[in-house]
């Protein structure tokens, strides 16, 4: 009868342990600590779930918590370190690096990546994509999702096709610079996943982007 209460408590703690990616922080190791906390909580949860009696559940929670904390801290540490290195090495300040706690998203606005109505990567951004490709080789235990996005100007079918072509163009640069193609997946969302209002020029500019999400294995 106590197990549902434990599950609910651990789940609630896990949800509150992680700082929102939008919250400014001066702590370069923020995600390391959060990864350890969340990994420990989820490891303890797994340990409780497999126990047959009170004693085995306690032992499972202890072991699972220790293992989970170690794994979570390692993942968080790598994300903190990789994010800091990318911020240091990118030349264009318009590139956003968003540490989500368990993934890292490199957001490149379309306006710096491509000429209008084009899927040809700007020569000035190819250098930053090569920096990212080098980082991906330094951190090989991850997969990469490259997703293109547009605003809602024009026909939805055209925007969908353009988002796919732009995502493929970015992925081609990453692969050409040494990222194994087996680690890279490509898709386009067209106008279906806005991050700002399409009712203003500023909002539409934010929605025109390519998101490169790094997912640790």
From TrEMBL:
UniProt subcellular location: Cell outer membrane
Main location: membrane
Keyword Repeat part of the UniProt annotation: no
Listed CDD domains: OmpA_C-like
SUPFAM superfamilies per UniProt: OmpA-like
Metal-binding found in the keyword field: no
Name of the protein in question: OmpA family protein
Source species taxonomy: Bacteria, Pseudomonadati, Pseudomonadota, Alphaproteobacteria, Rhodobacterales
